[in-house]
Write a structure and sequence with these properties.
The structure holds two protein chains of two kinds.
Chain A lengths: L11 E6 L3 H9 L7 E7 L6 E5 L2 E5 L1 H4 L2 E5 L3
Antiparallel strand pairs in A: 1-2, 1-5, 2-3, 3-4
Chain B lengths: L23 E6 L5 H9 L3 E5 L6 E7 L8 E5 L11 H10 L11 E7 L3 H14 L3 E6 L1 H6 L6 H8 L3 E3 L8 H13 L15 H8 L3 H4 L3 H6 L3 H6 L6 H18 L9 H10 L4 H20 L1 H21 L4 H18 L2 H17 L1 H14 L8 H6 L4 H6 L7 H10 L9 H11 L4 E2 L3 E2 H26 L11 E3 L7 H35 L24 H6 L1 H8 L1 H4 L6 H10 L5 H9 L12 H9 L11 H13 L4 H11 L3 H27 L4
Parallel strand pairs in B: 1-4, 1-5, 5-6, 6-7
Antiparallel strand pairs in B: 2-3, 3-4, 8-9
Helix pairs in contact in B: 3-11, 5-11, 13-16, 14-15, 15-23, 16-23, 20-22, 21-22, 21-29, 21-30, 22-30, 23-31, 25-27, 27-28, 30-32, 31-32
Classes of the chains: A alpha+beta, B alpha/beta.
Chain lengths: ~80, ~700
């Protein structure tokens, strides 16, 4: 599952950040790394971008960027 | 529960020997980490703003009085960055300064790394990279009060000993910890001789990568602007993730370990107040309504409330001009002072109320965290034309005046997005166009109604606003696909926790903007106004008409008689361009108006007043005598000069042409080159000409007049 399709509010963990280009580098510099808990808070009124919570801070991402982040929903 | 081990200690007597020379101190840190607040607290009003040579990035420098027995230190406030692997121009410059590769900045003696205590892990990422460069550094732990309130217990001494660098908690706005910071900086600088590279235990020569990833592209090979414009080496390198992923993960792992040792509570780390505010402010329905209200407030303020101080400046300069005219002997010199210099200076100062008010709002919105939310709400819409969500506020402000609007584009980090936004800002119908629209409507469309109840005039004005927006959309799209082409930068934007903006920081920002405007744009505006005055004042007519009363600011020509204007260089130019503008429906008198309007759009009205010999007192916009004069003006063949079609053609021209030297001066200052302002004037002029041509000729083909 990728982050752009993750249900809002669900607790997930980053599995991988598709490693191409400046987006991936920027995301990983900001701490979006495999194993880190991540959740989608909501989307902007027009459906895009989305607000993501990671490492205790909030991040706005366009859906196309969120698509590069593969996550797994925490089962517990 | 472990008590907070560290508290702010008061500065003790310094044992270090005084430094002979100025120390250079660079302040670096993540965006939103409180860097600017700290910089303001360190330097107070001893700041100056310039540009890094050849680029749009602003360079902020100040003096910090470290202690009484040392000369003040030179402090450089660097653009915010998340990492040394620079992806944007701002970051590349910050990185060059930090690594001592910037040719115009001596390598920093000490780096103060600003680390947000409420987001330690992410902020320490940059700090650890800097530790490895070997430059002495001190960590300033900001937002310490917020971390305390959030029940986050940071053992500062432990953190400092694990990292091997001084860590000083500060609360910039209360000036807490500033003394200790000065002490630590002096000690660190004194220990410079035995400085060593700190090798993080688990990391091997990571820094070699940091240095070579971008190569030293800054200035060594190409102009940094070009480098980002045409896909730099960094872009090529970062497409090979195996180069950096493993090290990045390893580094974060190391930091997490350090932080888990030094921070006692993993308690509730989220900002509950921020969540509650966000629930309303970025709500699907309420959010846009709030944004609309905020924008109405900002717009209302700069559009109408700024009028009071602007009128006061205007009357003041008119009074001074009258005073000079009454007491000085008539002649060229007096004319220069009264019609050239005084209105020129006034024409610069008149922008100050709008700039101050807009930057009051921009800084307040930015520092409070709201601007990032506004960009979040508007991004989808702005992306349609290839712009960033942050372009919204500057563009909206440009409806009042493009000058502060263009200055406000500095919130957009990406240089290409920023230039694209600057290039389309003047299409937003500013308040200076309104008098022109009003005169045309009053002259030719006032009494008519559309659909029985809507005034035709109002709908024409609305159409002009929409025309500007539509053209802006098309131009933005074209620019982003041609001249400013390139991969869109990631939107990835932090939504910082809401904070109470600090009035001191807001005042700082307002003053800085005014200073920058006066120094860089103001001088240019003054020079051009004097030049334009000369075009109207020379050559001197043999029969100077009776000197009229001194006009208002911008009406540089209003003291001049019709004969003088007609025979002046501007008048001659008006006749010269007549064949060129005849297809637009304009005669040479309108031509003179057009030429003078390149000083400022509203000047066209006073100029028309002069060429149609309307008394000076009735040259106000919409005055009946000017309207009458325009309505009855005839060509040599007896036909009317002005028709409703000519009026529409003129309005279209005014929507699209960049007739505002102040805008040109500000674009020059903001893009730090003549390339963009000249391009802007040319393409807008061509666009205005072609559109007016189509309007007038098309209208005639359709049988309109």
């Amino acid at each position: 599952m990728t982050l752009d399709t993750t249900p809002y509010g669900a607790l997930a963990r980053v599995v991988s950040v598709a490693g191409k280009g400046a987006v991936a580098l920027r995301l990983m510099q900001m701490g979006v790394l495999p194993g880190v808990p991540i959740s989608v808070v909501k989307s902007a009124p027009l459906g895009d971008p989305i607000q993501v919570r990671v490492r205790g801070y909030d991040l706005a991402l366009r859906r196309i960027e969120a698509q590069t982040i593969t996550v797994a929903i925490d089962s517990d | 529960m472990t008590p907070i081990v560290h508290q702010f200690h008061s500065p003790t007597t310094l044992q270090t020997a005084p430094f002979e020379e100025f120390l250079t101190i660079a302040v670096a840190g993540n965006p939103n980490a409180g860097k600017t607040s700290l910089f303001n607290a360190l330097t107070g009003l001893r700041q100056k703003v310039a540009n890094y040579p050849g680029v749009t990035v602003e360079r902020k420098e100040g003096l910090w009085l470290l202690s009484s027995n040392n000369p003040p230190a030179r402090v450089i406030d660097l653009p915010g960055l998340y990492s040394l692997e620079a992806t944007s121009l701002d970051e590349q410059i910050a990185r060059a300064v930090l690594l001592g590769n910037d040719p115009d900045t001596s390598p920093p003696d000490v780096i103060v790394v600003v680390v947000d205590a409420t987001s330690l892990v992410r902020n320490l990422y940059l700090a650890t990279q800097l530790m490895e460069t070997g430059c002495p550094l001190v960590i300033a732990l900001t937002m310490f009060d917020l971390a305390e309130r959030g029940r986050l217990q940071i053992n500062v001494e432990k953190l400092s000993s694990v990292l091997g660098v001084p860590v000083i908690p500060v609360v910039a706005r209360q000036r807490r910890g500033i003394g200790s910071l000065a002490e630590a900086v002096l000690k660190t600088a004194a220990a410079k001789s035995d400085r060593k590279r700190i090798a993080l235990p688990t990391l091997k020569h990571w820094q070699t990568y940091a240095l070579s990833a971008q190569g030293e592209i800054l200035r060594s090979k190409t102009d940094p602007h070009e480098a980002t414009m045409h896909g730099s080496e960094s872009e090529r390198r970062i497409t090979n993730p195996s180069d950096w992923q493993a090290q990045l993960i390893e580094r974060y792992g190391w930091i997490e370990k350090v932080v888990s040792e030094a921070v006692d509570s993993e308690a509730e780390r989220r900002h509950q107040a921020t969540e509650r505010i966000d629930a309303i402010v970025t709500h699907k329905i309420v959010g846009p309504i709030i944004l609309l209200l905020v924008m109405v407030l900002v717009f209302q303020t700069i559009f109408s409330w700024a009028n009071l101080p602007m009128n006061m400046i205007d009357s003041l300069f008119t009074a001074v001009a009258n005073l000079v005219r009454a007491n000085f002997p008539a002649g060229v010199l007096t004319d220069l002072i009264v019609s050239g210099i005084i209105p020129g200076v006034g024409g610069v100062l008149i922008f100050l109320p709008q700039i101050l008010l807009l930057f009051f709002f921009i800084t307040t919105l930015e520092d409070s965290g709201y601007l990032a939310r506004a960009a979040f709400l508007m991004d989808r819409l702005m992306r349609g034309v290839g712009l960033h969500g942050k372009a919204f506020v500057p563009l909206l402000s440009s409806f009042a005046c493009a000058v502060p609007g263009i200055m406000a584009t500095r919130t957009i980090e990406n240089p290409k997005d920023r230039v694209a936004t600057i290039m389309i800002a003047p299409f937003m119908s500013c308040s200076a166009r309104l008098p022109v629209y009003t005169l045309m409507i009053a002259g030719f469309f006032s009494s008519r109604k559309v659909l029985g109840f809507i005034s035709l005039g109002a709908s024409i004005i609305l159409a002009m606003y929409l025309l500007g927006i539509a053209v802006a959309v098309v131009v933005a799209w074209l620019l982003k696909h041609t001249l400013l082409k390139g991969p869109s930068p990631p939107f990835v934007m932090e939504l910082p926790p809401y904070r109470m903006p600090n009035l001191g920081d807001v005042a700082h920002s307002m003053l800085t903007r005014v200073g920058v405007f006066l120094k860089r744009a103001g001088t240019l505006i003054l020079a051009i106004s004097i030049l334009l005055w000369a075009l109207v004042a020379f050559p001197r007519s043999t029969s100077p008409g009776a000197a009229a009363n001194a006009g208002t600011i911008q009406e540089t020509v209003s003291n001049t008689s019709a004969t003088q204007v007609e025979n002046s260089y501007a008048g001659q130019a008006g006749r010269m361009i007549e064949p060129l503008i005849r297809p637009l429906g304009f005669d040479w008198k309108i031509g003179i108006g057009l030429i003078s309007s390149f000083a400022a759009r509203e000047t066209v009205i006073s100029t028309l007043g002069i060429v149609y010999n309307v008394g000076a007192n009735s040259r106000e916009e919409g005055s009946t005598s000017l309207i009458e004069a325009i309505r009855s003006a005839k060509r040599p063949d007896g036909s009317l000069v002005w028709t409703p079609l000519v009026a529409v053609s003129l309005m279209v021209f005014f929507v699209l042409a960049c007739q505002c030297m102040s805008t040109v001066a500000v674009v020059r200052r903001e893009t730090n080159s003549w390339r963009w302002p000249l391009f802007m004037v040319c393409y807008m002029l061509i666009l205005a000409y072609v559109s007016s041509f189509i309007t007038f000729q098309g209208g005639r083909i359709l049988g309109l007049s």
